[in-house]
Design a protein that fits this description.
This is Hikeshi-like domain-containing protein. The chain is 19% helix and 30% strand. A hairpin with a 2-residue loop joins β11 (186-187) and β12. It is globular and about 50 Å long. It has a 5-stranded antiparallel beta sheet. The protein is α+β, with helices and mostly antiparallel strands and 222 residues long.
Length: 222
Amino acid sequence: MSQPLFGLIPAGQPVIISPTEAPSPTSFLYAILPTNPNSPPGSAISKPFGHVVVFLLPGVVLPPGTAAAIYLVTPPSPGQTAPNFKFLGGIGPGKESAIFKVGPGAGGTGGGNENVVIGVSVEDAESVASRMATTGTTTPAATSGNGTEGALVPVSAARQQPSTLVLAQRIIKNAFNFLSSYTGSTLGQMEVVPLKAFEEWWKKFESKVRTDPGFLERDDDQ
């Protein structure tokens, strides 16, 4: 896979835009490591999280008639060899991002040191919408309406796209510039930004992606 397609943000953790594994051209696994990047070196303390944001990266479109199904992947049940896939919801045209609950304190030390694994699979939009309807979740549009055929491709495939590292740096810079305006409490020598501030940044970031999908691809001030 030459370009990242999806982004994940576990609550309180850095952005993830590169899958840990791609079992097929249309399915991706993201293992969220049970470590807190703000913890001292060698520390076994991890920061639990209960929600994860999944979104289409700017400039990426899905093939017509498809949507991305989101799964929580857990180890095989006793007597089984294949992992379990719990359907969480979906994203796609008209619903390019969503917040999913993955359980209380996922990724923390209280429930062990296993990775939290999120699966993203590009599937038939009607099938995804049908399963989402059972949960009362707003469904993505059935088609993209842009005539894009074949595998997932950036809208502007003809021009050179920023690398994965550059995209990640620009997303993080955008978040930092916004969150740095908040004066949070301190925990030891760390300054803590309230979750409400992160949620406000995400709303503004999503709105900007909708109105100007290519803004992260431009080398300008974020």
